[in-house]
Amino acid sequence: MNTLSGVSAQPLSEFKSTAINGRVTSYGLLADRVRMSLGAPLINVEIHDNQIFDNVAIACEMFSKFAGYTEELLVFDVSLYEVGQGIRLDKLMSITPYLTSRYANVNWRVERKETGTTQFTNIEGKSGLSATLDYFLIDDEISDPVEYSIKFTDENYDTQISKVYLTSKYESGSALATFLELGLIYTSTQEIATVGVTTSGNSVTLSLTPSADGMIVIGKHPFAENLSPIEVTQRATYIDGFDQELNSYRKVMDVYSFEEGSSGGVNTLFTIEQSLAQQTYFSYSMGNYGFDLVSWYVLKQWLDMRAKLLNVNYQFTFNSRSQYLRLIPEPDRARSMFGLVGCYVELAIRDLVKEPWVYQYALALTKLSVANVRAKYSGTNLFGTGTINYDYLFQQGLEEKKELEEKLYSGASPGFGDAEPPQFFVG
Question: Domains in the chain: how many in total?
């Protein structure tokens, strides 16, 4: 936690920041910014850290409801669909490649033997009764820490994500290793895999033991400098489908489209689309013959209307609370079907705390909190015949809060929360 503990000046490098590469990456750093905006550390600000953290949380909740989202395309697999209930979108995030990890991954197959033991085989053909995820030798005093992203998906499509920070050192002719496991997330009701580190001589082995059949995906991200596990945590990269700070999947706000995968299109023979494309080509290459572009457009509109009226395409409903997507009519799990789900996904906390609106709203709420504290001592005489005045701070916080909420509710030109970057034209 980063808090202001004294009045000593911090190095300038700690305050360099841009809109995209901002220095605020946590609640603690944002709380420091709010506190300094109110005069700390030169003056005492009558507020507890937890009050500022809760104000930041309220600002994140407000912003994520109206503006804090990204547009994502999730891979749909009908085998994950639960008849009568729907499909959980967090499970779709676990099978959508670009949301699972930013690492260069190594795939491991896990197969159950008749004896009840588990066989692990990676892409190089190595195998064993427990998966050796990484193995290395050290011979210097301190070895650089390594961050691992480990994803285990069992045969029921339950997924467990684990982030491991491994540090090691060489002492008295042998290796010593410690590991820190953070952000353990799984969709099942219990832990479905365990991670362990062992040493022998100057060797260090990272292993994983799952409790079911499935697939392991491991990513390795070494660091080029000596860092403690806590420092590694602050500088680590993240898995895009998960919010490590919340220890939970990122939540979907709404679903705007569902497209079933198909083999149709203008490049497939014996389809209406292919016949239309061929007739349009004849129209321009052989004179007045076949469809023109207007006819193509009208017929395509008719095909879309026909699909809606005859219920050829799937309709869908989505519950943001339960995160279940339900298709109408319900798909047949016996046949193979894939598709894409277009949805709006909440930003992770690490991205929300970088938003200017979140800072401004947290500051306004903190002003109200400090004013309420000072109001309890209204009329108290201070040294030098001064009195405690809270009215100005209260009114300022109230006006800023109202103005910021109006921006969030109604938007501001050219669009408040997620507008495209400004464009510059010459001429």
Answer: 3
Is there a single domain that holds both residue 295 and residue 358?
no
Average pLDDT, the chain: 77
Strands of 66-200 (E only): list them. 69-77, 87-88, 105-112, 118-122, 127-128, 131-137, 142-154, 159-171, 174-186, 193-200
Residue 119 has pLDDT above 60, yes or no: no
Residue 156 included in any domain: yes
The two tokens of residue 56 are: 């930041």
pLDDT at 125: 45
Q: Which of 237, 264, 291 is the last residue of a domain?
A: 237
Q: What is the DSSP string of 279-305?
A: HHHHHHHSSS-S--HHHHHHHHHHHHH
Q: What whole-number percentage of the chain has pLDDT above 70?
A: 73
> Does 258 share its domain with 216?
no
Concatenate the DSSP letters of all residues of 244-264 into one string: TTTTEEPPEEEEEEEEE--S-
Least confidently predicted of 15-24, 122-131, 192-201: 122-131
Alpha-carbon distance 30 to 12, whole Å?
A: 17
What residue numbers bound the domain in which 49 lies? 12-68+349-379+387-410
Q: Residue range 86-97: average pLDDT?
A: 85
Q: Would you say residue 252 has pLDDT above 60?
A: yes
Q: Which residues contact 35 (CB under 8 A, 6 or more apart)?
A: 4, 41, 45, 47, 52, 366
pLDDT at 389 over 80: no
Q: What does the alpha-carbon distance between residue 241 and residue 90 come to, in Å, rounded to a whole number?
A: 8
Number of H helices, E strands in the chain: 10, 18
